[in-house]
């Protein structure tokens, strides 16, 4: 039985210079904030140009805890990967 080959994950290729700003971040202290609803798939390359991303949505329960059933653990892991690669800050939206 052959041993399976492990393929390392691919690192996103940064967008061409000037697509969002040199070195992938905006100039003059501007923030570029993305909004990720729970029903959309995250593209890690977005982190190349975002300073922050808001992941939507958690809802408060009557007991004060949060209903996070719409939020995906795999998306949270991808967001952490984005943060590690690009330094993008992750925010969670709470509605209700």
Give an account of the 3D structure.
The chain has 96 residues and is α/β, with parallel strands linked by helices. It has a domain of 63 residues. It contains one helix and four strands. Strands 1, 2, 3 and 4 form a four-stranded mixed sheet that branches. The mean pLDDT is 82.
What topology does this entry show?
Layout: E1 33-37, E2 52-60, E3 66-67, H1 73-86, E4 89-94
Please supply descriptive tags for the structure shown above:
96 residues, 4 strands, flat, 23% strand, 15% helix, alpha/beta, 1 helix, four-stranded mixed sheet, single chain
* Number of extended strands: 4
Span between termini: 55 Å
Sheet with the most strands? 4 strands, mixed
Portion of residues in beta strands equals 15-25%
**SS-based class:** alpha/beta
Write down the secondary-structure element order: EEEHE
Please bin the fraction of helical residues.
10-25%
Number of helices, counting only DSSP H or I runs of 4 residues or more = 1
Average pLDDT figure: 82
Shape: flat
Unreliable runs: none
């Amino acid at each position: 039985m052959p041993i399976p080959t492990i393929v390392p994950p691919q690192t996103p290729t940064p967008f061409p210079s000037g697509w969002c700003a040199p070195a992938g971040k905006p100039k003059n202290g501007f923030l570029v904030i993305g909004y990720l609803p729970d029903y959309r798939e995250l593209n890690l390359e977005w982190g190349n140009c975002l300073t922050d991303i808001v992941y939507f949505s958690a809802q408060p329960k009557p007991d004060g805890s949060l209903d996070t059933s719409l939020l995906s653990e795999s998306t949270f892991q991808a967001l952490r990967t984005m943060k590690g690669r690009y330094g993008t800050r992750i925010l969670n939206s709470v509605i209700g």
